[in-house]
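Regression test case RT-17, inverse folding.

Input:
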């Protein structure tokens, strides 16, 4: 039994003893055992036991706090939602009780648990009837709304909601006094989308507030005001320094966001006969950020191992030439094997085991509520923030609206490719060149090879017939697609195409900006499994990713220092002259001014219905860990049985039996990341 096995058995026995003490009513013993757990483990079982103990000693407030904090750590655990629903009902917070009761039903792992949670919700409704004489209308309404969660689609359905209903021109989100609304973008006569047409149209999201008939603004500088009608045939009047400008009710169409330029500073009054949405005024002032442009370029699925083996000068000459006099990491690693958890790590500076945005199908976890995202740092510093993206796993519904002033989105499957993304980026910069801009762009095109999609003229015309017929070799997911020479060939062509269009963007930046005024960062989220002929998934072709940066305070070097994707946030803040934060897991690499170099990089695979896997790589070894049992639907898994190996990178020798101290060291690292997810039979 390894170190994780020993720790698991120790805490499992404590939990079992707690159950036995509860059964015989020895509450004092329960308290002693819970204290014995300390902070060593806080999986869902221990969390519920702590809450029940607090209830037993009459501390409802503490029990509530334990469970509310538990939901952040265990968002898909039925027991915690059940217990939270029970307590909330007892303190007559009925609507919240209904919410967590429905989620307890949704996340129930078997028929017995499902029936138990259904009974709980029915009892809540009976309780409301008894205490109020009748069921309150608000509680019934909440119940009807929450029941929809049982059959919801996941957030990839955006810009529809999870019930497949159109959200155009309604308030999408509210956060810290700001509202967010999206509308169609360049759609001419199309005013809304459905489940099928959503792929083929762009949507535009802006930050602002709904205005009820009149709004007064004081503009100190010439400004652009984003405005969206919420209903057709709305009449709008502008009064600027006593001058009147009238837009009759057929002039401004309602299926787009209008940008109204106000060239003269002064007092502006906007009146309308129906509600309208007024975006945050974009004033022509720099607000003193130190950079005029900070550009984050994300290329989904780009492997650094592939670029190194094929030669960066050959495969991506435009990317290489742009970053050659900047920073290029030759030792940066993904923290997860796929997009959703990796991108959440980039945006929060936290490991997947911390931010918990992991589940491919379950949505009801607003991770942005608990974590600060990259654009928020730049918005607070005075930047105009924008996101131009076709990545369905980072659309606004997943929480990536927060911190952005403007978002342009279209699902990549509808055709928004690198060419479109680059042109929209350049147009955004040209439109708001007077501002300091933070722009995040996502490029999905290299996924075409992985997903066996052929839609780009440049790639198709360069693909030989012999590589067109060998298809249908896709795994259960793209992650599980194993070695395939045809895909490698097409992958190379798609990367070259991305590089070609990025060259246009780099030329534009070079012609319009002084290097000291710009930070450009390029990165990926993971590589590809099929580029190496290996039986494992977490090999270096998938875990090793590009990280390239250009800017004034960026070291001019090719660095072999170990960097994890979790470190991207502090790096970006540092090179952009923004204040670093200690509220994250990421660390500033030594080459950027950090205290020390990292000893290792960790990549984890934590996905329902797959075994949990982890890979730790240092200068000398690759350590692998894999459970025998698969991860359950609620993201928990057993660690009673698992396998480890420690491979010497130079010799290829398995050394776990002779290097037990290193094995124990890395098992401890993994235990600290998985202790919240451990499940006991």
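Golden output:
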């Amino acid at each position: 039994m390894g170190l994780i096995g020993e720790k698991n058995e120790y805490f499992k026995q404590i939990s079992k003893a707690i159950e036995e003490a509860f059964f015989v009513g020895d509450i004092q013993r329960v308290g002693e055992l819970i204290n014995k757990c300390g902070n060593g483990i806080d999986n869902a079982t221990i969390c519920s036991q702590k809450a029940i103990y607090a209830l037993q000693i009459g501390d409802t407030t503490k029990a509530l706090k334990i469970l509310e904090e538990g939901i952040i750590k265990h968002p898909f655990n039925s027991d915690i939602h059940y217990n939270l629903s029970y307590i909330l009902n007892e303190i007559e917070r009925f609507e919240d009780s209904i919410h967590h009761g429905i989620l307890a039903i949704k996340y129930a792992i078997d028929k017995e648990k499902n029936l138990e949670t259904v009974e709980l919700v029915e009892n809540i409704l009976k309780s409301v009837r008894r205490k109020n004489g009748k069921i309150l209308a608000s509680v019934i309404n909440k119940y009807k709304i929450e029941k929809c969660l049982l059959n919801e689609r996941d957030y990839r359905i955006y810009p529809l909601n999870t019930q497949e209903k159109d959200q155009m021109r309604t308030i999408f989100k509210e956060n810290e006094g700001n509202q967010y609304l999206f509308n169609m973008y360049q759609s001419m006569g199309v005013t809304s989308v459905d489940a099928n047409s959503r792929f083929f149209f762009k949507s535009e999201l802006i930050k602002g507030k709904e205005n009820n008939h009149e709004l007064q603004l004081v503009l100190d500088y010439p400004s652009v005001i984003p405005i969206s009608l919420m209903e057709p045939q709305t009449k709008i009047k502008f009064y600027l320094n006593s001058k009147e400008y009238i837009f009759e009710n057929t002039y401004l169409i309602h299926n787009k966001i209008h940008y109204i330029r106000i060239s003269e500073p002064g007092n502006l009054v906007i009146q309308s006969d129906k509600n309208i949405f007024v975006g945050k005024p974009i004033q022509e002032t720099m607000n003193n950020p130190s950079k005029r442009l900070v550009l984050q370029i994300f290329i989904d699925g780009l492997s650094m191992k592939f670029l190194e083996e094929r030669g960066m000068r050959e495969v991506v000459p435009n990317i290489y030439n742009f970053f050659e006099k900047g920073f290029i990491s030759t030792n940066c690693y993904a923290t997860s094997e796929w997009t959703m958890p990796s991108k959440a790590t980039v945006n929060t500076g936290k490991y997947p085991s911390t931010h918990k945005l992991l589940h491919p199908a379950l949505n009801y976890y607003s991770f942005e509520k608990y974590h600060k995202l990259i654009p928020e740092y730049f918005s607070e510093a005075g930047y105009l923030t924008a996101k131009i993206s076709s990545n369905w796993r980072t659309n606004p519904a997943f929480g990536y609206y927060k911190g952005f002033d403007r978002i342009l989105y279209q699902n990549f499957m509808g055709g928004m490719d690198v060419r479109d993304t680059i042109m929209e980026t350049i147009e955004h910069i040209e439109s708001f060149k007077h501002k300091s801009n933070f722009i995040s762009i996502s490029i999905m095109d290299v996924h075409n090879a992985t997903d066996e999609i052929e839609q780009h003229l440049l790639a198709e015309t360069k693909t030989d017939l012999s590589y067109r017929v060998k298809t249908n070799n896709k795994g259960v997911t793209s992650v599980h697609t194993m070695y395939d020479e045809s895909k490698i060939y097409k992958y190379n062509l798609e990367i070259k195409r991305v590089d070609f269009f990025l060259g246009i963007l780099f030329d534009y930046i070079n012609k319009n900006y002084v290097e000291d005024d710009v930070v450009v960062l390029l990165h990926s989220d993971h590589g590809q499994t099929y580029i190496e002929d290996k039986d494992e998934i977490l090999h270096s072709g998938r875990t090793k990713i590009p990280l390239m940066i250009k800017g004034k305070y960026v070291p001019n070097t090719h660095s072999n220092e170990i960097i994890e994707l979790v470190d991207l946030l502090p790096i970006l803040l540092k090179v952009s002259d923004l204040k670093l934060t200690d509220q994250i897991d990421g660390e500033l690499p030594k080459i950027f001014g950090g205290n020390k170099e990292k000893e290792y990089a960790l990549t984890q695979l934590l996905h329902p219905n797959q075994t949990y896997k982890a890979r730790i790589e240092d200068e000398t070894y690759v350590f692998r860990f894999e459970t025998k049992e698969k991860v359950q639907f609620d993201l928990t898994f057993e660690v009673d049985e698992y396998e480890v190996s420690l491979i010497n990178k130079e010799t290829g020798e398995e050394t776990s039996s002779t290097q037990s101290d290193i094995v124990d060291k890395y098992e401890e690292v993994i235990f600290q990341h998985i202790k919240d997810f451990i499940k006991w039979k």
